[in-house]
Every structure is written in C-alpha cells, then in structure tokens.
Amino acid sequence: MEVTLSDRTRVDCLTETYAVEVDFARKWAEALGQALYYSARTGKKAGILIIIESPPEARYLKRLRFAIEKSNLPIKVWLIRPNDLK
Q1: Domain carrying residue 35
Q2: Is residue 31 in a domain?
Q3: Within 13 Å of residue 18, how many CA atoms lie on the same side as its CB?
Q4: DSSP character for 54?
Q5: What is the pLDDT of residues 17-32, one digit of tens each?
Q6: Per-residue pLDDT tens for 44-81?
Q7: Is residue 9 part of a domain?
C-alpha cells in the first residue's frame, strides 16, 4: 500500500520489512535513487519492483543489477513480466 511520508514523498509499497519503489524498467536509475531515499526515511530495507513489458527491456534490469552489485547496495529486486499477469 502506498504511504505518504512526512516530507510529502510517497513510497509505492511499505511493508513491515521493505520500502518498495515500483517502476517501469526504463526508469531503473530513478527507481534506484527513490528506493534508497525511502529506505533512509523509513528505516526499512530498500526494495525495487521492476516492470518489464517486453524482452528487450531486460537490458534495464541488467543495468540495475550491475549498479546494485558494483556499489554493494543492500537492495532487493523483484520483477513483473507480461506472463506474470496472465
């Protein structure tokens, strides 16, 4: 469920453990920054749910995972692909 924080920013999904940013694959870099910010504001672990609408968009997922791994960031990534919605 979306939650508005005291600074009026909105976390897409706030669970007991994670502050999750949900975004389309092409916006991977923005999602990365937002997830880190929401994690810092809430004290919860950072999470990103990436929506991949077509196979070519997998390149964005690779970029996201590369940035997370090379920066040693503690961010959990989940995926939604078209077949997941059937």
Answers
A1: 14-78
A2: yes
A3: 17
A4: S
A5: 999 999 999 999 999 9
A6: 999 999 999 999 999 999 999 999 999 999 999 999 98
A7: no
Specify if 2 maps to a domain. Answer: no
Separation between Cα atoms, residue 64 and residue 62, nearest integer Å: 5
Phi and psi at residue 18, to the nearest 5°: -120, 150
How many structural domains does the chain have?
1
The answer to the question of residue 55 being in a domain is: yes
Residue by residue, DSSP assigns 21-84 as EEEEGGGHHHHHHHHHHHHHHHTSEEEEEEE--SGGGHHHHHHHHHHHHHTT--EEEEEE-GGG
pTM of the full structure? 0.93
pLDDT of residue 86: 73
Tokens 């504001």, residue located: 41
DSSP state of 71: T
How far apart, in whole angstroms, are the C-alpha atoms of residue 82 and residue 72?
29
Q: Which amino acid is at 5?
A: L
